[in-house]
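re: ur question from yesterday

yeah so i grabbed the chain u mentioned. its 444 aa long if i counted rite. heres the sequnce exactly as i have it in my notes:
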Amino acid sequence: MQSSAAWRLIARVFLPFAAGYYLSYLFRTINALISGHLISDIGLRTSDLGLLTSVYFFVFAAAQIPIGILLDRFGPRRVQSALLLVAAAGAGLFATSTGLPSLLISRAMIGLGVAAALTAGLKSIVLWFPKERAALLNGYMIMLGSFGAVTATTPAEHLLVWIGWRQLFEILATATGATAVLVYIVVPERVTTPSIGLTPATLGSVFSDKRFWRIAPLSATCVGSAWSLQGLWAAPWLTDVEGLGRESLVGQLFIMSIVLCGGAWLFGTTVHCIRRRGGGAETILAVVAMLFIAAELALILRAPLPSILPWSVVAIVGTATVVSFAVIADYFPPELAGRANGALNVLHFGWAFLAQYGTGLILEQWRTDGSHGPILAYQIAFGVNAALQIGALVWFALPSLRSFTRWMGSIAFFAPASVSESVESAISYEQAIVLIPIDGDAEW
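ran it thru and got these structure tokens back, copy pasting raw so excuse formatting
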């Protein structure tokens, strides 16, 4: 690809979709910042807040498979631009909402409207850029989108002081509508020809693939939980457990969002380098999962560490989709990219919904008088997540463990000897002793 052509593709294809994903990440994480305003202005309870924030993930997850099919059939340009208009309308409704029902409807509209933000960007990379650059560009896409999480901290906090949360959502509605127009006008169309191979281009070929079901539970429980924690429950933890004030809280969320952006770049670069050397990305995902579990355990057990360290690991894991989608890209042909990515995203966001809402329900059991939740409630809620991730990690590692066991069994040293083999060995040993000539002059 020539340099000038490459830069034209980046300007016309990559950056418009990155802008859409930026808005998606901003909408996803903004509730952690405005949660206090929603509680004070509208009177939401903790469980209401968990439901309001998680309905975004629920609708997002439910839309993934239909969106994947639409992306493969109509292309990312038309699908992304149409859905972003829905998100713009949802943001406008959110700005005028005065009760939980209208907030839920508007949040659901936002979730549906940005549901194609990542998968449309990934599909456009598959269609327009060389395959060997896909993982690197995926990393850059998620890195630029993650700046939405950065915007949802200190910059948004300054805007909240100046204009309030309702006016903030009016600005987001306008920006989202403008991005929809930009994608439709600037991004070109690309016609694909199905590749000749044995894999049929259907959704069933994704769900029937054993490799998909090996990686999907681990990716979903880790990535979905990381989104849930950073998108909502990091702020209550830092307030209730760590005792941070508002300024310190916003500062720590800002650091986490910066780390989030760096994690996307790190994963994209790492996967790109490993692929150039002929390696796979599955091992990276397993290492990320182990680090995430360790970070959660450090929080649960109150390890004597600065809390920003485990929370930074949580932030980084939220960008491990770079690794997961790189693995998926190796499993399926380009014409199945939308369906495969959508199927995996169903589990990502479905788990984020369950983790976010379930955490709120657990915390609500200890919060009956409107006071701060006790540490035990957070430890139980976070511990349930960690336990399920450990189970998913074991499931992921089972094929490797079986292969290792078979390999060990094939080595004669580790292979168990039968009784007849033992007797035969003993007889041969005795015969060997008898056959040794005796030398009277030998020294012992």
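noticed a couple things. DSSP finds 18 helices and no strands in the chain. also The chain has one domain: 10-187+202-402.
anyway ttyl
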